[in-house]
Amino acid sequence: MRISLRQLEIFVAIAKRGSTTAAGEDIALSQSAISASLAELERALNQQLFDRVGKRLLLNDHGRAMLSQAMSLVNGAESLEQTFLDEKAPSMLVIGASLTIGNYLLPRLLRHFWQQQGYTLGDSVPPLQVLIANTADIINKVANFEVDIGLVEGPCHRNDIAVTQWLEDELLLVAAPTHPIVLEYGPNLVPAKRLEKANWLLRESGSGTREALERALLPHVTQLKSSLEFNDHEAIKQSAIEGLGIACLSKLVVEDALGVGKLVKLNTQFGVLSRQFSILTHRQKQLTSGMQRFISHATANI
What we know:
Layout lengths: L4 H13 L2 H8 L3 H15 L4 E4 L2 E4 L1 H25 L7 E5 L1 H18 L11 E5 L2 H9 L5 E4 L8 E15 L4 H6 L6 H6 L2 E4 L4 H10 L10 E3 L2 H9 L4 E5 H9 L4 E2 L7 E10 L6 H13 L1
Parallel strand pairs: 3-4, 3-5, 7-8, 7-9
Antiparallel strand pairs: 1-2, 5-11, 6-9, 6-10, 6-11
């Protein structure tokens, strides 16, 4: 073998950071050692992997083609080392969750998970990192090995990601009690034509909530008129409470506001709107025992 895992680790670090100096800071090597390792790797492959732009190193076509496999090999070696060299070494699971799941479902899931393992909540829990973003961003983080597990509320069509169907989430169309539609129709059926005239409070493109809403409504409503777009469910909920428009949100998000009468569920012809929550893992990622325990708990206890 003409290339080493250390060379691949350095190659991945340079690709992520864009310079030998920054890569050296990440993996505790001098800039000269990083440069020498990269030169040896490019000689072994008989290909340049980066374009040199001033002090920046940018992946060229050969480097881009190599990056995914190199990341997979480095990740596999790290998993192997952790599993067999020191099984008692502390580890930190990194979970990526889309906004509804991360804000309203994951905390409850973690409470049950750690209680079953005998932890005293508030005093001692294992280290864990949670990254919350929209569905598209979480899918990208799983693809790039930035998170161990992705929990998303929108579809994933990437071939390199394994998708486990998880649970079904109900979406509700809601508005403030003072909204003109609520005053006009109350509990009665709201016509699709009337919904076209209303202002909608929408999530940003790439959101699982928005994709589910458009997939369900656009066959019946020709357009969703919107002057306000948000990247956060809570901002949409509070804007709906203030009467700024109609919102389509998960029941998990609005059940508290519905309970105290700050929001009203609209009666429409669309029936039950729902979308599928999914658990994502990279197909080339080694599933550690910690990942397997969390996934098993999530699928069995929600």
